[in-house]
Amino acid sequence: MELTETRKTWLIETAKALKGSDRRLFMARTVKELGQGGQRRAERELGWHRELIRKGTHELESGVVCLDAFAARGRKRAEDHLPRLLDDIRAVVDSQSQTDPQFRTQRLYTRLSGAEVRRQLILQKGYTDDELPTAETIRTKLNELGYYPKKVAKSKPQKRFPKPKPSSRK
Fold first, then answer.
1. Residue 113 needs a FRET pair 20 to 30 A away by CA distance; which of 5, 38, 83, 152 works?
2. Neighbours of 167 (CB within 10 A)
3. With 80 as the cut, is the pLDDT of residue 164 above it?
């Protein structure tokens, strides 16, 4: 197959328009049409990566589509780095929390902010400042665990009403 400038442009634009395994299969079929030395030629003239072409060729020959592990990328959660973190947060917050005073909801309210929980984890549980996540992250973990920061008010007793004055009827 001859690679004219218009054909090169068409191949490059088509490859850019496709994603994932469709793109790899398109590249593999194109390289197969180029014949002997097609991978190097596609790399040199079309700017395609040979590893990507090899993966596409493997998919084409085997019929099995390789899945991209997009979910495995990115930053891991704080619990992955510190497996005991959630248990330690619960231990610190449980002593300072209470349920809804009117028992209208199952929510647990706590007086502690994320920054205070972070300080308590350092003091009580022996974490260092560098290994703990930020106060914002700890606040998020508190919400995920079902704790809601709020000024906890004790249940107020009902007001005593003054005794009615005896009427002075005679």
1. 83
2. 6
3. no
